[in-house]
Write a structure and sequence with these properties.
The protein has helices at about 95-100, 235-245, 245-265, 270-285, 310-325, 330-340, 400-420, 420-425, 430-440, 460-480, 490-505, 525-530, 540-550, 570-575, 585-600, 630-635; strands spanning about 5-10, 15-20, 30, 40-45, 50-55, 60-70, 70-80, 80-90, 105-115, 120-130, 140-145, 150-155, 175-180, 185, 190-200, 200-210, 215-220, 220-225, 285-290, 295-300, 360, 610, 615-620. By secondary structure, the chain is of the alpha+beta class.
Length: about 650
């Protein structure tokens, strides 16, 4: 599988390192956003050195193969003497949240003789000063430490202030990079780890690289550490545990991969390939912490957009993978939104868009006015939630219908997968406020922003109206589950009928907007009508939508709507689920795979490509790619 970028060490938004070329030796490694964070890998055979990771003065050993599965990158290199296998992976385990959050990546290497001779072999990795966020070597402290008899190397800025700023495409200048698993050395250009053996035909070496950010999230003034610190008292203990348990951890990771690939095999190899391309960037764009109330918080970063933290309309498309495999993390995405919505500052009768800018979860920043008393500099993002005034947001840039629908649907979906009724009870008043807002807006919507805000405002948006209808329908189910009365489902049905009638298409495809009968768009929000078995819309509409998508299909996918040629990969796969034959999932997946192979843009897996040219329009390393699992969710739970 050819990709525009390949995962090397994917830990969190501040330490997600990728190779942006087909051969690991053609260029250095980079942070997901394109900032160079150089890691070097050197193989030595009988005293002769060869590069297998990064650029440098040593000759490169030839790369023969690159195999990418959901959680493992597996490279093969060869020369006339030896074969080198290099695997990199992290313990991203859905069934163990402490390990899921442990900031460690494995570098596994195996060297095998090809000429039948015994050799003196060594493998070394150098984490350069660039990983510390500084260009001035004198500002970096490097030292060694020992954990249970195992020595490891540590480096970080001499002076640092964790969580002092926020942003999107930047690397944090706090925390410590560590290496463990061999002989360590402190060098001018970074820290190095080396493993070697003499006179052998085969040798296997394992080391780990880690990033201890000290503090991970500022949550409304509370500095929180990564959840892994509950299990491990230090980064040394975490690395030592991972090294000591490498074989069992790898077995568990492979079992998780098998589950994902088995679940998706009926949709074809192209579909399995795009899940493999997305899996690690999804998890590496999050941070898992726990607040002082004991609540899990799964904090997403809206990468390559504006850096918002826990954006509701990012959690919404990301939901399918988490609903399938670890629904408790859906709740952990929503807790902070509910808490902010209940704060004195937020007086709106609709749901917030976000709770800050990563890693500062201190109040919504989207649509924030550039008021000098509120946000003069980035550090002020630490105290938005304490703002005295209430008029600090620009209403025209809010997403009221979008976020109300998202929060209602996500909350109910979490309940459906877990049966956790307490989460419904404790947030019922807030949910009812949002449902009432949706009911007040009706289905012929005014000029609104939706999650596709990059495409601009739109009036009478049909797909957004469908989301509002789904929000009302799920709130009807919520009231029913809590033993309360209400006419929410009847309202949803009446709104659905009104919308179809206003569109004037009866059993044909629905237009993009009510007043543009000849327009069209991906109606990805319809998926919940099938998943939750509401039957609010006629099956003939699903078929007409499906046929329309095939009619509009371009080389690299189906456009988002009639206005432009770009699309969103997550929404494509959601819309594909409306097809009862399941053919559209395989068809759209083939187009997405073709894009990944043809594009010259060497970034992570974008969710916003052009459908006629293999070009990225924007966005990469985004958590929304967890939405690519919607067909699997449909297969397992759809009616």
């Amino acid at each position: 599988m050819k990709l525009p970028a390949y995962p090397i060490a994917t830990i969190d938004p501040h330490f997600s390192i990728w190779s942006r070329c087909d051969s690991l030796t053609d260029d250095d490694t980079y942070l997901w956003c394109g900032i160079r964070m150089k890691i070097d890998g050197i193989l030595s055979v009988d005293g002769e050195s060869f590069r297998f990771l990064g650029k440098g003065d040593e000759p490169a050993i030839e790369q023969k193969e690159a195999k990418i599965t959901p959680y493992i990158s597996d490279y093969i290199f060869e020369n006339e003497k030896v074969r080198l296998s290099f695997k990199t992976w992290s313990p991203f385990l859905f069934d163990d949240f402490h390990l899921l959050s442990t900031p460690v990546a494995f570098f596994d290497t195996t060297v095998t003789s090809l000429d039948g001779e015994k050799h003196q072999l060594s493998v070394s990795f150098t984490a350069t000063n660039e990983l510390c966020g500084s260009k001035n070597n004198s500002e970096i402290t490097k030292y060694t430490d020992t954990c249970d008899g195992t020595k490891f190397a540590i480096m970080g800025l001499t002076e640092q202030e964790p969580l002092h700023t926020s942003g999107d495409t930047f690397k944090a200048d706090w925390g410590y990079v560590c290496l463990m698993g061999g002989e360590v050395a402190l060098e001018k250009k970074g820290i190095r780890i080396k493993s070697e053996t003499k006179n052998v035909k085969k040798a296997a070496f394992t080391c780990v690289i880690s990033y201890d950010d000290v503090y991970s999230i500022n949550y409304f003034g509370e500095k929180l550490k990564g959840l892994w610190t509950e299990k491990f008292p230090s980064i040394g203990k975490a690395m030592k545990y991972c090294l000591d348990n490498k074989d069992s951890l790898l077995t568990r990771i492979k079992a998780q991969e098998k589950m994902i690939l088995e679940d998706s095999k009926e949709f074809g190899k192209d579909y399995q390939s795009i899940l493999s391309a997305a899996a690690r960037q999804v998890l590496a764009a999050h941070k898992l912490v726990r607040n002082s109330k004991g609540q899990l918080l799964y904090m997403s970063k809206e990468c390559h957009s504006n850096g918002c933290i826990n954006t509701v309309d990012v959690s919404y498309p990301a939901a399918p993978m988490y609903l399938l495999y670890t629904p408790k993390l859906i709740k952990a995405m929503l807790v902070g939104i509910f808490e902010f919505a209940k704060m004195p500052l937020w007086k709106e009768d609709f749901a917030p868009h976000d709770i800050g800018r990563y890693p500062l979860a201190c109040g919504q920043v989207y649509a924030l006015k550039p008021h000098r008393h509120i946000v003069p500099h980035s550090y002020s993002y630490k105290r938005i939630y304490k703002a005295k005034g209430t008029n600090i947001y620009m209403p025209e840039f809010q997403m009221p219908v979008e976020e109300c629908g998202n929060m209602l649907i996500l909350t109910y979906a979490y309940y459906r997968m877990t049966g956790d009724k307490s989460f419904l009870t404790e947030n019922y008043y807030t949910l009812s406020t949002w449902a009432k807002y949706l009911r007040s807006k009706g289905v012929i919507l005014d000029n609104q922003l939706c999650t596709d805000d990059f495409a601009g405002h739109s009036k009478k948006n049909v797909n957004l109206a469908i989301k509002a209808i789904m929000g009302l329908a799920v709130f009807g189910k919520i009231t029913e589950e809590l033993g309360l009365s209400g006419d929410w489902e009847q309202t949803a049905r009446a709104f659905a009928d009104e919308l179809v009638s206003a569109c004037g298409t009866e059993k044909g495809h629905l237009p993009f907007s009510v007043d543009k009968k000849d327009s069209w768009s991906l109606k990805y929000n319809l998926v919940w009508d099938i998943l939750f078995d509401f039957k609010l819309f006629d099956k003939e509409i699903y078929k007409a939508e499906t046929d329309k998508y095939r009619e509009q299909l371009n080389a690299y996918g189906v456009p988002l709507d009639y206005r432009r040629d770009f699309t969103k990969t997550d929404w494509e796969l959601w819309a594909a689920c409306l097809d009862e034959t399941k053919e559209n999932v395989a068809l759209f997946s083939e187009c997405i795979c073709r894009y990944l192979a043809d594009t010259k843009d060497r970034n992570c897996f974008t969710d916003w490509p052009d459908t006629k040219q293999a070009k990225q329009c924007g966005f990469d390393h985004r958590t929304v790619q967890a939405g690519l699992w919607m067909p699997v969710l449909f297969r397992k739970f759809g009616k």
